[in-house]
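TICKET: design request
STATUS: open
ATTACHED STRUCTURE:
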């Protein structure tokens, strides 16, 4: 069975001066996950390892460096799924967990599928997942962003932070495979969408997917997006393929973006076509913004996004590393 691994570092309007760190972070995650695969480790191991690398990188909105909620705290969501058994593990709205993806993996190995808040944090203690102080998760960049959003909040309507940035702007263009960047006149998604994700196919023919995020800037405390929801933020099935989503969670949930993408694979679409079709549905049905990464059961890779940029990197056995935004 051919090996394959693809990772993403979020879909949004990544500023020019942040492109290099996003590419470097995706490449490091790819390298770590690829080493695991080539050493005979499972797809589950590979995606957990890749996502941990990005959680530890303050470039991304996952783990250390995540955005702050309205209370000025980091609340994290993560999930992981095994395509052979359809078992999954997820955590939501957890604090003080440096690597929520590893906590999600332990949930997968338990009798539960999704744990939230204090219950998830207590479970972390029982399984030996290291905890840290809230302050250890905050970086100066996000503290400054939070201060600015708090200042602006007084001048915005109550739902201003609930709507996808640019939702009222005309959306045009979907990047799939090697297409050129989409044309979004007037669309500036200035706040991070750096949810991170990974999909892998291992030597044994198994697929796995994993995702992790700090959510949206200045979110309501307790807000949970698509990331920990199976079928929305991720999906993996050895009968179809694996997918990890990124973007505006409230829209992604409505169309079950990851399951939609893998269903297209099951219907015979090539991965690039399936990715494009899924993003088209996201855009047409709910005016959503986001991206997906895919691997099918043959080890073919695909991705698509309708935001100005999405950071990604991938490799298939016998080929060279590919990375871009």
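STATUS: resolved
RESOLUTION: sequence designed for all positions
ATTACHED SEQUENCE:
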């Amino acid at each position: 069975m051919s090996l394959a691994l693809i990772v993403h570092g979020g879909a949004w309007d990544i500023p020019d001066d942040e492109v290099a760190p996003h590419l470097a972070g995706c490449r490091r995650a790819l390298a770590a996950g690829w080493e695991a695969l080539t050493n005979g480790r499972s797809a589950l191991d590979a995606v957990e390892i890749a996502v941990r690398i990005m959680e530890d990188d303050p470039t991304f909105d996952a783990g250390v460096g995540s955005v702050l909620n309205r209370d000025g705290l980091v609340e994290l969501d993560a999930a992981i799924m095994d395509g052979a058994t359809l078992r999954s593990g997820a955590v939501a709205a957890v604090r003080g967990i440096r690597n929520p993806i590893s906590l999600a993996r332990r949930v997968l190995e338990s009798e539960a599928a999704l744990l939230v808040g204090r219950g998830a944090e207590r479970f972390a203690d029982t399984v030996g997942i290291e905890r840290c102080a809230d302050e250890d998760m905050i970086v100066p960049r996000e503290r400054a962003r939070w201060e600015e959003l708090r200042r602006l909040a007084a001048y915005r309507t109550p739902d201003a932070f609930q709507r996808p940035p640019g939702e009222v702007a005309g959306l045009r263009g979907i990047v799939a495979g090697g297409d050129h960047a989409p044309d979004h006149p007037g669309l500036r998604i200035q706040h991070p969408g750096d949810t991170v994700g990974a999909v892998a196919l291992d030597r044994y023919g198994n697929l796995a997917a994993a995702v992790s995020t700090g959510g949206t800037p200045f979110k309501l405390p307790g807000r949970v997006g698509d990331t920990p929801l199976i079928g929305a933020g991720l999906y993996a099935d050895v009968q179809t393929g694996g997918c990890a989503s990124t973007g505006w969670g409230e829209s992604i949930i409505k169309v079950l973006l990851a399951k939609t993408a893998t269903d297209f694979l099951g219907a015979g679409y090539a991965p690039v076509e399936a990715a494009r079709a899924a993003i088209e549905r996201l855009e047409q049905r709910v005016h959503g913004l986001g991206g997906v990464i895919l691997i099918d059961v043959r080890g073919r890779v695909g991705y698509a996004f309708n935001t100005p940029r999405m950071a990604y990197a991938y490799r298939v056995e016998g080929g060279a590393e590919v990375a871009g935004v």
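CLOSING REMARK: The CA atoms of residues 179 and 266 lie 24 Å apart. The longest strand covers residues 4-12.
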